[in-house]
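Treating backbone geometry as a discrete language has practical consequences that deserve illustration. Part of our work consisted of pairing the sequence of a single chain with a tokenised description of its backbone. We regard such an encoding as a compact summary of how the chain folds. The amino acid sequence and the backbone structure tokens for this protein are reproduced below.
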Amino acid sequence: MSDKINKKAIISVADKNGIVELCRELDRLGFEMIATGGTHKLLEDNGIKAVKISDYTGGSESERVKTLSQRIAREILETGEIGLVICNLYPFFDQQGKSIDEMIEFVDIGGVTLIRAGAKNFKKVGVVYDPNQYADIVRALKEDKFNEEYRLNLVRMAFDYIAWYDTIIASYFAGEFSDRIFISNAAKLFIPMRYGENPHQKAAFFLNPIQQGGFKIHGGKQISYNNLLDAEVAISAASEFKDDIAGAIIKHQTPCGVALGSNQAEAFERAYTADSVSAFGGIVGLNRSVEPATAELIIKYFFEVIIAPGFDDRAIEILQAKKNLRLVEIAPDLLEGTNQRSVFGGILVQDKDTGRPGDWQYVTKRAPTDDETQALKFAWKVVKWTKSNSIVFAVKGRTVGIGAGQTSRVGAVEIAAQTAANQGNIVMASDAFFPFRDGIDTAAKAGVKAVIQPGGSKRDQESIDACNEHDIAMVFTGMRHFRH
């Protein structure tokens, strides 16, 4: 393997952190340096000798074409006369609230070309894009370890960098995913993790830099992979009730309890008492900024994460009394977009489930009462956030029993009924139709008075007849809410 590179470097950096220190070391190591305008001025101002790129190429240095030179390309790609490329790109990923004409000017062309060229000719050239690499680059050069194997590792990182950069640009200009032929995720390492779902699995949280400012953690121990999975469901379930004050407590990606309240403290307490046993160690989601009165209630119990669109300063002080409790502040726009899941090494993509049923179809002799109707609307919003097959038992503004993730729908009814024992005026929501009447018969024994379900089974009439026999009101929505 070749261990040596030519001691000529081209330097073009938007992020100038650490570049003066790096170039001072390169100067001591005998490198000739070629630099673009802003970088060249910075180096000269700090007493570091460098050739301005327009003087080196004999061309004009307009902003758009300054590094697009045949001489530069040849000396990187063919001869390796330029042995070191130090380049990072216009910060397209940092821009907010700009017009499309303004964003166009942040699309880097020459920088991507430099990095790609240096990476392609790694047998003769080293390519560096991140200020965090600088110290190790200097060490490797001084210790004669900047060899082909070392440069190949730089190539792996460089190609990741430019692929990520191009993906951010593609995402900005993209239309609906259903109109796209290619799709990728413009995520960048955001939160390293000790492990994944289990201790033997490696994991990390990657997030588009444009979105990273919308995810803040106010203390607590390091957030985990499973915490994040549950936290998304917790805030999503609570946020389902945009016109009400709501709280949700989640474990294993399904609700233990969801409730509304006249104030936030009441909403939380009602969600907790819906199933206080299962709530232990859960994730709390609230759809309003966390208030001190709510925080005082929360710290009485053991939870892993509190997630909300904001936190009152006093609420943070109260909650931070529990040193391990993670407090996550989330911007509402992070709940928008699409659902993406990895399968077979590919990506499944779909719209998020924001569907709302149209007119309900009243299919039984008895229509639901006004109170039952309110409870049914509530239960229908909750059931979409439970794992299918799923059943939700509820009263007005509060769940009283949830059976989720079952292979049998009647089994889900039985589980929900166990928690809902001794409750009155119960309604039931099912995320999909009942294939047999046994689910209705079991619900009737548990005291269910009204049912909401999509309908659509060949045996719908059996379920309707069962409801009529038990004096249960039932409505069809024509829409199911599977969540796998």
